[in-house]
Write a structure and sequence with these properties.
Helix content: 40-55%
Structural class: mainly alpha
Shape: elongated
Oligomer: single chain
Strand order of the largest sheet: 1-3-2
Largest sheet: 3 strands, antiparallel
Number of strands: 8
CATH architecture of the largest domain: Orthogonal Bundle
Distance between the termini: 77 Å
Order of helices and strands: HHHEHHEEHHEHHEEHEEH
Number of domains: 4
CATH class of the largest domain: Mainly Alpha
């Protein structure tokens, strides 16, 4: 019976489209048809949900999990998950699977090897540690303060572990969370990213220390970002970018111990390997003095 109802719903859906095609397409007729299709889409989802329930699939969340568990390690498009869930709020169900049950579901937001709107269940077992971190993220999201303060609180709570794009955007409630992270760095918080640490996935951040650095470091951190942006976050020697196994550092063309200044013309973005190569030729050691401006000057460094 449930499957019959689903077939009827699909046929009604198609009939509206066919009638629109037969009567000719103009703006008014299409808007009327589109509105009717919208109503029928809801009816079709409900009919498909009844098929799920008839087969023992109790909810959209259960349907998503069952589908992903049959495809562990495979990239699955969002539209496919919306289809098996038979609900409009399927994305919330994915978040519940992560937050409340600890299922390690990654997305194209956090992985460069997947399309942006794809998801992947990485293992067929829930991760309690991941679930706990998402519970902390949920708590941080509900706390008082701006999105920036909420992210800082979360990074402090999980330090020295890192937070990924999904968690930070969820906590902050804004798409421009990366800009807020940059503001925290400019305020003196030492936050590492894949630019500084190649072990971190792109878009992940880790609070390196719970101590806030003194105000005098802010201008150096701000200048470092300006140089990285100017150079498109790309090594100016070999062309590599974060996520390709290297970190990025800002190099003084004329070394500091030889009188080099923090002028933009004297600064260039290099990957850690190219940076080391340049200093090997000069017989000096490597240090990104804009990343660590609070350290005492070292006459053996640039």
């Amino acid at each position: 019976m449930a499957l019959t109802d689903a077939v009827v719903a699909v046929r009604r859906y198609l009939k509206v489209i066919e009638q629109t095609q037969d009567t000719g397409l103009d703006q008014d007729s299409w808007l009327e048809s589109a509105a009717e299709i919208g109503v029928l889409s809801g009816e079709m989802r409900e009919a498909l949900s009844q098929v799920n329930r008839a087969l023992g699939i109790k909810s959209g969340r259960d349907a998503i999990l069952l589908y992903l568990r049959k495809r562990v390690g495979q990239s699955v498009p969002a539209d496919a998950l919306a289809g098996v869930a038979c609900i409009t709020e399927w994305a919330r169900r994915i978040r519940e699977l992560r937050v409340e049950y600890g299922w390690p579901i990654e997305s194209g937001i956090t992985r460069d090897d997947m399309p942006h709107d794809h998801y992947m269940l990485t293992t067929d077992q829930p991760d309690e540690e991941l679930a706990e971190r998402w519970r902390l993220a949920k708590y941080a999201r509900k706390s008082k303060g701006s999105g920036k303060i909420k992210m800082l609180t979360y990074l402090q709570t999980i330090s020295p572990q890192s937070a990924d794009k999904d968690q930070l955007s969820y906590i902050a409630g804004i798409k421009s969370y990366a800009r807020r992270i940059r503001e925290l760095e400019e305020e003196g918080w030492q936050i590492a990213s894949s630019i500084d640490d190649p072990s971190l996935p792109p878009g992940s951040y880790r609070l390196s220390t719970l101590e806030k650095r003194p105000p005098r470091v802010r201008e150096a951190i701000k200048l470092r970002y300006e140089i990285l942006e100017r150079d498109n976050k790309t090594c100016q020697d070999c062309g590599r970018i974060p996520g390709q196994g290297v970190s990025l550092q800002v190099h003084h063309i004329l070394p500091v111990h030889q009188g080099g200044k923090n002028d933009k013309e004297n600064l260039v973005t290099l990957c850690s390997e190219c940076h080391g190569g340049r200093h090997a030729l000069m017989g000096t050691s490597v240090k990104d003095e804009l990343l660590n401006p609070d350290r005492e000057p070292d006459v053996h460094t640039h």
